[in-house]
Amino acid sequence: MPSNRQFGEEGGRLSYGAYLRLPELLAQQLPQSNAPDELLFITIHQVYELWFKLLLHELESAREAMFNDELWQARHVFRRVHAVERVLIEQVEVLETMTPQDFLEFRSKLAPASGFQSVQFRELEFLSGLKEARYLTGLRDASEDELARLRRRMDEPTLWDAYLTALSQRGLETSDEELMGSLLAVARDRRTYDDLWQLAEDLLTHDETAALWRMRHVQMVERQIGTKSGTGGSTGAPYLRGRTRMHYFPLLWELRAWL
Ligand code: HEM
Ligand SMILES: N[C@@H](CC(=O)c1ccccc1NC=O)C(=O)O
């Protein structure tokens, strides 16, 4: 007898909304004002945080793959990371459809909250190799759980540590004195080291895309608030401009000068 059961109905009772937890997800947009654009503002930030969560997951797996000498797997993961990071940059355009006048209708309600306090953003920086202890103390109202996550990231190996392990697994020296020589050897002998070279390029693209997001963010900030200081207490655009010069993997940039 033919069964009328559809694919997926064999086991549990999942539906689209139950699987994706939509009642819970869609109950989390709670504006502080009646300003029409605040829903956009909340939505875009929540979408960023979801992508940040995925990026942390993927970067952890890239790090693991490098430690396990599975460079092809790390490269596979980086393709996804880069695609998500490009989306993060593109998404700024959606928020820029908001006028500064419309932002001002609810901006004062947000203070002292600010993107400054995005724990996942800081986790991404720490995991990538940019560990700055000042961000462990400067977080207003972070929960114990969030602080513990950041402290753990501070103590954990970074993507750069994992790359150095990948180099040494191929017999290349990674001491401070010899590291640039090893990076140059990889760059100059691609017949032997192409996988390590391509992986370094993947790291560099991750670094470059993060910097592009920072530049895009500060452009948006200048368009929205000009020279005003930030709700998080910083100088605003000048502080953020300074952050655009940060690099996760400074030696990969320095390498260019030696080639
Ligand atoms: C109207 C739009 C936005 C404005 C005017 C704005 C403004 C600012 C300002 C002034 C700061 C510096 C800290 C402070 O004093 O407040 C900052 C930091 C930050 N913002 Fe935004 N922001 C906007 C949208 C976004 C969006 C959509 C995100 C996505 C998650 C975001 C993420 C961040 C992050 C992660 C920081 C910390 C950067 C760092 O410390 O390097 N911002 N923002
Ligand atoms: N710091 C922004 C406000 C802002 O954009 C914001 C406020 C609360 C939560 C996230 C935010 N996004 C990025 O900083 C400002 O000074 O206008």
From TrEMBL:
Binds 1 heme group per subunit. Its cofactor is heme. Heme binds at H217. Keywords: Dioxygenase, Heme, Iron, Metal-binding, Oxidoreductase, Tryptophan catabolism. One of its GO terms (molecular function) is metal ion binding. Belongs to the tryptophan 2,3-dioxygenase family. This is Tryptophan 2,3-dioxygenase. It comes from Nonomuraea soli.
